[in-house]
Amino acid sequence: MSNPANHAHLIGRLAQDIKSFPNADGSRKQLITIAVDDNFRSGSEKSIATNFIQLENFVPAGRNAGGWDRVHNGDLIAVDYRVDAKPYTDSKGETHYPQKLVVDGFPTFLEPKSVTEARAAKKAVAAAPETPAPAAETKTEADSRIAQLEAELAAVRDARNAAVPVAAGAVDYENQAPFGG
Questions:
Q1: How many domains does the chain contain in total?
Q2: I need a surface site. Which of 8, 90, 107, 115 has the fewest CB within 10 A?
């Protein structure tokens, strides 16, 4: 249950795959980075800036991460979170007020499963190691699978391009490295 006075909502794309850090008791901490576009244009170029918001999620021991196990780089999601600030006093007597953004609940997927699967297939094809061309008559099982994935990706890409026009000034997160790298 969330506190309505300390509650916020983000809509954006996962900027990188979720980083998971296991704890000794079997629980784990997840770091989630979401790329969120501003809803206004600014600067001399009148461009839309993107903010990279880092959130934390805690997964108790013996539980799965729910929907977070199915979220991957580039997926469009909505997330509820809260600000967590636990002040402490260091050895010099100075009080510090660190803040972190903590996830409340699970992600809401904002694009069809077919789109996320097509993105995963595209990454699988791109990540496949290049092998020397086999003899014309011999085709390995891996080559057959790659050809099948490429055909599926082309079909999904054609359907997507026909159904979803790209808005002017839209950011292409699939071909953009996170953090401008």
A1: 2
A2: 90
